[in-house]
Automatic annotation (TrEMBL):
The entry's keywords: Glycosyltransferase, Transferase
Protein name (database record): Dolichol-phosphate mannosyltransferase
Gene Ontology, cellular component aspect: membrane
InterPro entries in the record: DPM1-like (IPR039528), Glyco_trans_2-like (IPR001173), Nucleotide-diphossugar_trans (IPR029044)
Molecular-function GO terms, alphabetical: dolichyl-phosphate beta-D-mannosyltransferase activity
Family indicated by similarity: Belongs to the glycosyltransferase 2 family.
The keyword Glycosyltransferase is annotated on this UniProt entry: yes
Positions in coiled-coil regions: none
Single biological process term from Gene Ontology: glycolipid biosynthetic process
Classification via SUPFAM superfamilies: Nucleotide-diphospho-sugar transferases
Ranges of residues in domain Glycosyltransferase 2-like: 6-171
Length: 242
């Protein structure tokens, strides 16, 4: 029985999903994997289910109807993980932009005192491979903007590669997390810090996907831009007592 669960949301990831699953299960540190598929029409869920006998008791899938958003997928996965008593709960993309080898480093950071460990692209310079310069600048300055508005000292505020200790997800009222894209990632970090949890950044190299299609859109970016201000204002009227 592993104490660590990797949650991977998917939508049309048939090119990547088997490889990412096999890579996670090849690691020395044992992890379980939960795929949350939002009705991928390309057969992603069928590929996962075809691997479940091989990884019985270690690979799980939850299927939802239609695209419901990254944030709702992770919150669904968080609740699933908490019901099953995992100690360390991870967010990771399916497309190899997050290197599965870094899962053990994130877990080690939490074992050694962090409550949330972030796989950070910007904590030591800019460590991004294969992104066009415009997107690098957009992401980098988005994190600067988040720091300016929220006053949280996180270099990679929009990062989606993370490890949580279960106490964090037990404490944060998940029903009050409202955003679904980049803003979801920001809101989770901001809320964890407001509750007094220790959040650390672990340097990683982020490599843009080589297979499949990015889910980024101007709507998601706009949600993040406006959502940060809304989140900060709302925080003035909320209690963060544990």
């Amino acid at each position: 029985m592993s104490d660590s669960l990797v949650i991977i949301p998917t939508y049309n990831e048939k090119e990547n999903i088997e490889r990412i699953i096999r890579k996670v299960f090849s690691l020395t540190q044992p992890f379980h994997v939960l795929i949350i598929d939002d009705g991928s029409p390309d057969g992603t869920a069928e590929i996962v289910k075809s691997l479940q006998d091989e990884y019985a008791g270690h690979l799980f899938i939850e299927e939802r109807s239609g695209k419901q958003g990254l944030g709702t997928a992770y919150i669904y996965g968080f609740r699933w993980a908490l019901e099953r008593k995992y100690a360390y709960i991870f967010e990771m993309d399916a497309d190899f932009s997050h290197n599965p080898d870094d899962l053990s480093r994130l877990r080690e950071a939490c074992v050694n005192g962090a409550d949330v460990a972030i796989g950070s692209r910007y904590v030591k310079g800019v460590n991004v491979v294969n992104w066009p310069m415009g997107r690098v600048l957009m992401s980098y300055f988005a994190s600067m903007y988040v720091r300016f508005i929220t006053r949280i000292n996180i270099q990679d505020a929009t990062a989606g590669f993370k490890c949580y200790r279960r106490i964090v997800l037990e404490t944060i009222p998940l029903n009050k997390i409202k955003f679904v894209g980049y803003a979801f990632q920001i809101e989770m970090k901001f809320t964890a810090i407001k509750f007094g949890f220790k959040v650390v950044e672990v340097p990683i190299i982020f490599t843009d996907r080589t297979e499949g299609t990015s889910k980024m859109s101007t709507r998601i970016f706009r949600e993040a831009f406006l959502g940060v201000i809304q989140m900060k204002v709302n925080s003035w009227f909320r209690s963060y007592k544990r």
